[in-house]
């Protein structure tokens, strides 16, 4: 009976390993060959085909600009403008010649391309001759409408179209076709190389699988790895669940105050045994303020840092842990704090990309804070900073969208929205419509900067003269409006008169050019919607202008005055 031959396991592993190495060498060699061929074809495209196409595009563009400059020179309103267009024409002609030379340097010897090149030269010469003759004629003072100009303009258009047609043919028939052909060749080479590599890799995977299958693996090591992996997965699951819940809590906060309240709830739930506080910079980003603390009865951990630049964690932009507050390596602000010894964790908080806050948590002296607590504090700091940054940016964008950038008052759109809402409520309202007298003259005489100062001063006086509940807005240009709550035309006239008095006082104490303002006033007894109130106040404002400006006129009063004047004239006659 024949003896059955069995290859030793280590020999099988050795043979399979050498086979795998040979396959890897084949993959590397085949890949290198493919890459070299791709590089060669790509270099040809980038060094020859693409420059040819680019030069033709520039020739086409410069031809068009030169022809356009000649056409604009024909209709130029004066000699100086015409001269500028003629100079631009000359520049574009030079650029066209330069680009054409560059194209010739990369052109190939194909019969079709050479035939087109020969066709272009006479067309370009004809175009240069006709445009040159037209330019010379324009320099002599000829204008659009002259028969010679009209005839030459038509001739240049025909010559330009002929030359440009040749360039277009070169772009489409020669340059673009070369690029397409080279690109298709590159794609074909890449696909073939990828297919070959995939086949070799598949074989390599089979061989590698056989090697792995025949290699000894320790069951005990595998078990240990499995336990470690399961523990890590459990930790990741807990962290993921916490991060999702934290994000949900902060995403539901629509204001900065609500976000800070959510942070307090999260800290109380996740790190209840550690007194923790959130210090965040105010709007000036110069001072830290305590926004959140989990131990209100004792004022929280009580960090005494006043400015962001004084906090080591903020300066470094990194989490810092301190096992004991009295060591020389501890934060200086911790060493100076009275009371029992303690440990601490400080996590920087970034708002809108700037580190302007810190999450400060304390614990027993020499207590080793767990990595889980550090992770929670870091996540709270990161997510809270992101949410506060978003809310601050949104609030700032809303303020910018609702206000006039020069004066800081409501803009017209915001005013119309708020005023219409008040009118729908049925409240008794008065409306004042005013503008600065002779504002254009003020701008012309003193400059636009003086005009801007006048608008800012007038806006300041209006805002200070109005009550807190009144709507003050810049209507447009030098026009301003005020909607006065719980008022009528009589009270509104009194308010505007006080405004005008305040304006006189403000002008006396400023460096602004002197000016006055006129107003028209209406109220809700005269109209039901904003459009009617604006129209009535505008008519009264025009009457104030007709009466000499620097005054306030209530809607209806000036019409009664006009009737009284007319009646007096009839009686006298």
Question: What's the number of helices?
Answer: 15
Strand ordering within the main sheet: 2-1-5-4-3
Give the CA-CA distance, first to last residue: 155 Å
Helical percentage? 55-70%
Strand composition percent: 5-15%
* Low-confidence regions: 563-573
CATH architecture of the largest domain: Up-down Bundle
Count of extended strands: 10
Gyration radius, rounded: 41 Å
Question: Structural class, judged by helices and strands?
Answer: alpha+beta
Indicate the mean pLDDT.
81
CATH topology of the largest domain: Four Helix Bundle (Hemerythrin (Met), subunit A)
Note down, in words, how this protein is organized.
The chain has about 575 residues and is α+β, with helices and mostly antiparallel strands. The longest helix has about 70 residues, at about 145-215. It has 3 domains: about 10-205, Up-down Bundle (Four Helix Bundle (Hemerythrin (Met), subunit A)); about 240-400, 2-Layer Sandwich (Beta-Lactamase); about 410-570, Alpha-Beta Plaits (2-Layer Sandwich), CATH 3.30.70.270. About 65% of the residues lie in helices and about 10% in strands. The protein has a 5-stranded antiparallel sheet. A 5-stranded mixed sheet has the order 7-8-6-9-10, with helices on both faces.
